[in-house]
What we know:
The first copy, chain A, has helices at 15-24, 47-59, 77-83, 96-112, 131-139, 150-158; strands spanning 3-8, 30-36, 67-73, 88-93, 116-121. By secondary structure, chain A is α/β, with parallel strands linked by helices. Chain A has a single domain, classed as Rossmann fold. A five-stranded parallel sheet of chain A has the order 3-2-1-4-5, with helices on both faces. In chain A, strand 4, helix 4 (96-112) and strand 5 form a beta-alpha-beta unit. The longest helix of chain A has 17 residues, at 96-112. Chain A binds chain B through residues 2, 23, 26-27, 87-88, 93, 96, 99-100, 102-103, 106-107, 116-121, 124, and chain B through 2, 23, 26-27, 87-88, 93, 96, 99-100, 102-103, 106-107, 116-121, 124.
Amino acid sequence: MTTALCPGSFDPPTNGHIDVIRRTARFADRIVVGVVGNPSKRAMFTPERRVELFDAVIAGWTDNDVHIEVIAHDGLVVDLVESHDIDVIVKGLRGTIDFENEQRMAHMNSTMVEVETLFLPTSPEVSFISSSLVREIATLGGSVDHLVPPPVRQAIGETR
Amino acid sequence: MTTALCPGSFDPPTNGHIDVIRRTARFADRIVVGVVGNPSKRAMFTPERRVELFDAVIAGWTDNDVHIEVIAHDGLVVDLVESHDIDVIVKGLRGTIDFENEQRMAHMNSTMVEVETLFLPTSPEVSFISSSLVREIATLGGSVDHLVPPPVRQAIGETR
Amino acid sequence: MTTALCPGSFDPPTNGHIDVIRRTARFADRIVVGVVGNPSKRAMFTPERRVELFDAVIAGWTDNDVHIEVIAHDGLVVDLVESHDIDVIVKGLRGTIDFENEQRMAHMNSTMVEVETLFLPTSPEVSFISSSLVREIATLGGSVDHLVPPPVRQAIGETR
Amino acid sequence: MTTALCPGSFDPPTNGHIDVIRRTARFADRIVVGVVGNPSKRAMFTPERRVELFDAVIAGWTDNDVHIEVIAHDGLVVDLVESHDIDVIVKGLRGTIDFENEQRMAHMNSTMVEVETLFLPTSPEVSFISSSLVREIATLGGSVDHLVPPPVRQAIGETR
Amino acid sequence: MTTALCPGSFDPPTNGHIDVIRRTARFADRIVVGVVGNPSKRAMFTPERRVELFDAVIAGWTDNDVHIEVIAHDGLVVDLVESHDIDVIVKGLRGTIDFENEQRMAHMNSTMVEVETLFLPTSPEVSFISSSLVREIATLGGSVDHLVPPPVRQAIGETR
Amino acid sequence: MTTALCPGSFDPPTNGHIDVIRRTARFADRIVVGVVGNPSKRAMFTPERRVELFDAVIAGWTDNDVHIEVIAHDGLVVDLVESHDIDVIVKGLRGTIDFENEQRMAHMNSTMVEVETLFLPTSPEVSFISSSLVREIATLGGSVDHLVPPPVRQAIGETR
Lengths: 160, 160, 160, 160, 160, 160
């Protein structure tokens, strides 16, 4: 049995994140989605709200037979590895900037705990989506309907 | 049970390839190493000899409890996915050039067969090794002893 | 009136090339597609055949009101700029490797003739397609049906 | 007739920005320079002052026969596309980091409005200039005379 | 005699910085380590404390016969070039993001003062270390013992 | 005294190569230019002819007081390090592709002999020049006058 950790700040969860989690469900038996609060960034949603949004999205997956647990966490990602019996960390890669940043983080993490980080290239049709651009567009009144899953769409609508 | 395919031309197998296979063994239950012959490149060893070299390397792993099968293949990588019940393809990434080339290949493969390609960032201490540089150095009489595993070292020595 | 030159070896034309030409048709009034034969590469089709394939593809565009001329050329791209009254060269970019190579070529060209090179980021859903991978897959018997337009699909089928 | 939009924060306008606008004037019939205020960054000049500086620069171009309009805007770039009848967005690219960021933005924008984004590789001799480095150097008392056009040079001098 | 300047914010000094300085000592006769305070970042240590930490590290090098001077500086790097008779600036490069940022800075600096910037590729085994990740891990209570030299390790321990 | 090795195939020497050597002369006391013949590439000039061309270029430098020796070599670059008392290898970098390839080579070389490789970012105005594009343009009858030094210009003219 393989347990995968998908960590991120997910503020908000986007179709890009959903793509990575759904594809991780094809080879992992259990997935922990770790919502890491980043205190240095101005948040759109609290970590707890992001967990709720993920739960609402996953609840809508009728074809899912993988156990997915979404949790908020405000420490190091490697702490989750030990507390949740994680076998592999999975991160999506959109381009070379992501690659270099995540490669560095993966090596850093492997100096603290024995864990492999696996990279999934994001699907082409969602490869340009980022939470920060979603926040920026939403703040300026633009539509992000095609960039985020329905529950997030609704939650952003309610903030207006 | 997760079966991983590690494809490559491996001409010759290097410490970088060994690093990726050993780390794949930490999360996969079974590994198929697919030695893909590349007819357009001038080869150092035949695909069959590369398989033998891999087998010799793996035979020396006393701590390995994952089933690893090494095979020569001269068609598409996706053909192996179907014939060998592969769950995931695993490729090592050394840098951004690797990333872009492998990302393209992964998307191409996913249009032909339903399979995810996972990328492992190569360990820093072997991140600069490439088969083509090993071939070039060996051809010019330089030492590649620190770049390849012992059976490959010996096989290169015998070609001189 | 703006005349755009879309140069390339196009061996064979792919859905990625078609994407760039269709989108160029949104801002240019006239397009010259320059099929540049590359004698150093082993070709799948002759430049003349590639021109025919492009013509067949374009003939099927019922919504096109831009004049598109496809020509074979075996000299420098900048020679076409002068002989065909080109205003801008347009090239698609899939990733950073393309960017660096095309940036270099653009600057080289601008030392020989006064012309701007404009880059179009390829549409995400075709951003992983390359002629060389199409050739490789087709040679090994794989399906490239989803990667190339119908006339090219048929032409590849006839070579088997 | 082609109308191009050159958007940016331009704080301050540099010789790199001027290079892109001048070269855009070679293929566009009308240019809108959209000065987008970025409230999250500490500004050197207000958006209105940046518009004045651009106007002063352009007023000095005796060889210009393209209509160039400079406007301040504090919403989404795509809003300008609709309100100003824009055909293409034009952005300069200095390197691969620019490319990946702008590629993402271009795809994001194309999900909101039907517009193509064209990239111009910045001329080599100004390819290393950035507004943020200009601000940093100017703040620390260094000379930026060779990096910005004369009106900006003078305006920075007056802030001291 | 060659005098090299190694500038940086070094907050804190890491094994990556030490690697660059030690290797610079192989070809330079005298090294100035310029600790540049960055007022826009939240600091872990004051520039003065960083100088002390560097001095403590260097004091432990029994095999060093190069004169190394560590100084705090709060202006432009190019000011140090003139005031300290610098022949070359030396910077470590971990990846392509570093390369593009440092290339830009090097060209900017060369417009202000006549000096060459030399890049050293960081040694593979420390190529993933960054001060910002060290600060982040230390703040969240993780161990950075393997990432920084002993005096820094101790100083971080005292801040807890 | 610092002796720098500038290795390359230099087929032909370009203004980009000359830029790197002239700037190396600012901090090195002695320079060895190593013309490495690459048997796998179709050459424009023999290594011996390239040495002559370099010598002709350097003979024209009236302001040069650094000893520069140009030699042909057909083995490993690291062999030159030992035979010519080299302190540092110097390579120019045009972009991120160069960086990744040269970083790999530098690490490979450092496993064979104790030598540091220093990278110089090429000057912006020659950052797009490559020998392979020069060969291609010259072969197709284009002008490379602005890309290569006068003696190379003349030698290329004589081959027509």
